[in-house]
Design a protein that fits this description.
mainly beta; Pectate Lyase C-like; Jelly Rolls; 23-stranded mixed β-sheet; eight-stranded antiparallel β-sheet; 45 strands; Pectin_lyase_fold/virulence; Pectin_lyas_fold
Length: 493
């Protein structure tokens, strides 16, 4: 037999003595006779104590958010319908008698979910009328579909959520909680656990949560795991998403162009790149990760842990070294990239990358704003072009530096057409040189051996439908072997 969970004693203390419940007067210590009878509540069968003496029953402090009406555990699959125009929060919550607010639907959601709890949002604009917006905190069986918050029609433009959505799950696999088929003008915040977000337009037309860089569409802080799939982020956000403190964010089939970065990871958080992300980037880059954060692909391979890539080819290899062998310089962790080459005679020898004529190497850091620095020399006087492609979307959409026997040029290639934006004559030699391109929101600055040779105002981002990738490439068409001594790719934060 169980006591009601909300019993609190004032004068009588109940003890378990050898499997028997015995009552004692708390002041005198004398035994007090008690008896039990079974009663039924509207939630479960319990045993209620009747006491020969003074006993007061006071519930635990009521939840300040839900008025104490939120049940403990599910008993069946449930659908709650919400209609911001014709609903009423005192209604039954059925399709024909919907409630009015998302918050009321969360208030009715049990804390422990062993069945499906589905919140269906009818078309309309959802505006919060409360100052306190608690997270929906729930526990669910692993691999059990638990909470689904979705727009009724499947068209995300039909449901506009103007208020913050704050969610947390105590445990359960990642598919137990899903938010989908809606538009948010605020921020979706994840406090804890595993959640999937699908087919959401992060429009940001309201007053989203603000980070140091500006408004953010999705934010997670703590031990969370989130998958964002088939979503769009508008340029009303500085950052599409930000994760910190051991959060994991998986990205799949996204689009849109925030004004700063697509996603940001800080403080031991992790970004996982999966599926088609070619139509998703920020003006400064697709992602930024520092302060112990890392970025990896879905196969587990680390892309790099920091927006600074560096290779002096001192390890004698074209492939990356393990993360624990990273270099550190000027406060940055420097990651040696994996180089992919088109020919077997591209090798590392004597601390240099040997790039024969007609060969190329590429890397995929997705850095679109920052500094690109190359230390190199020609083995003999060139007769054609050496091409450094710091920002390479496709053959017809790129930013490149061309160096040949008599000129150094910066190219912005749009629609296959080469636009020479910076040009300087020089007489080629076989000495070591450093060339640097600085690219920001105002254009480009080209620097050769420490001296600026020109600036422009071309900041080209091609249309999404022309992007086949976002790579960094070195290509030798010079007629001479090129020796690359060092490469720096420094993302602009």
């Amino acid at each position: 037999m169980d006591l009601l969970t909300d019993l609190r004693m004032t004068d009588i203390e109940i003890r378990n003595e050898n499997g028997q419940l015995v009552g004692y007067d708390k002041e005198t210590g004398e035994e007090v006779p008690i008896s039990f009878k079974e009663t039924e509540t509207d939630v479960q069968h319990v045993d209620q104590a009747t006491v020969n003496g003074s006993l007061s029953v006071v519930p635990d402090e009521l939840n300040n958010w839900d008025g104490g009406k939120r049940p403990l555990v599910t008993s069946k699959n449930t659908r709650v319908y919400v209609d911001p125009e014709d609903g009423d929060d005192d209604a039954a919550g059925t399709e024909s008698d919907p409630i009015e607010t998302i918050q009321e639907a969360f208030f009715r959601q049990p804390y422990i979910i062993n069945h499906l709890y589905e919140i269906i949002l009818k078309p309309g604009v959802y505006t919060s009328r409360r100052a306190d917006q608690p997270p929906t905190i729930s526990s669910a069986k692993p691999a059990n579909p638990a909470l689904i918050l979705r727009g009724e029609t499947g068209d995300r433009s039909d449901v506009i959520v103007e208020s913050e959505l704050s969610l947390a799950y105590l445990h359960g696999e990642q598919d137990v909680a899903t938010v989908k088929d809606l538009t948010t003008d605020h921020t979706i915040i994840q406090k804890f656990g595993n959640i999937k977000i699908r087919n959401v337009h992060f429009r940001g037309a309201g007053e989203p949560l603000t980070t140091p860089n500006g408004p953010v569409g999705f934010n997670a802080h703590g031990p969370t795991e989130t998958t964002i799939t088939e979503c769009t982020f508008s340029d009303n956000y500085a950052e599409g998403a930000r994760v910190t403190e051991e959060s994991m964010l998986k990205l799949n089939s996204l689009s849109g162009h925030p004004t700063h970065y697509g996603v940001v990871a800080r403080s031991n958080a992790e970004i996982v790149l999966r599926g088609d992300l070619h139509q998703f980037w920020g003006k400064k880059g697709q992602w930024s990760a520092d302060m112990g954060a890392r970025v990896r692909r879905g196969n587990g391979k680390t892309v790099h842990n920091n927006p600074v890539l560096y290779d002096d080819f001192g390890d004698g290899s074209l492939v990356e070294v393990p993360a624990d062998n990273r270099l550190k310089s000027s406060g940055h962790y420097l990651h040696r990239p994996d180089w992919v080459t088109n020919r077997d005679d591209v090798v590392v020898s004597g601390g240099e990358l040997i790039l024969p004529d007609g060969s190329s190497v590429l890397q995929g850091p997705r850095v679109t704003r920052g500094r690109y620095i190359y230390d190199f020399n020609f083995e003999s006087i060139p007769s054609g072009n050496m091409l450094f492609r710091p920002v390479y979307y496709s053959s017809g959409e790129q930013v490149a530096i061309a160096i040949n026997s008599n000129v150094i040029e910066n190219w912005v290639v749009q629609g296959g057409n080469i636009n020479t934006t910076i040009s300087s004559s020089w007489s080629a030699d076989t000495d070591s040189h450093r060339i640097e391109l600085r690219r920001d929101d105002d254009g480009h600055e080209l620097i050769f051996d420490g001296e600026t040779i020109g600036v422009d105002s071309k900041t080209h981002h091609p249309p999404a439908d022309k992007r086949s990738g976002l790579l960094y490439q070195l290509e030798n068409r010079s007629g001479s072997q090129i020796n690359i001594e060092q490469v720096w790719i420094i993302q602009d934060n």
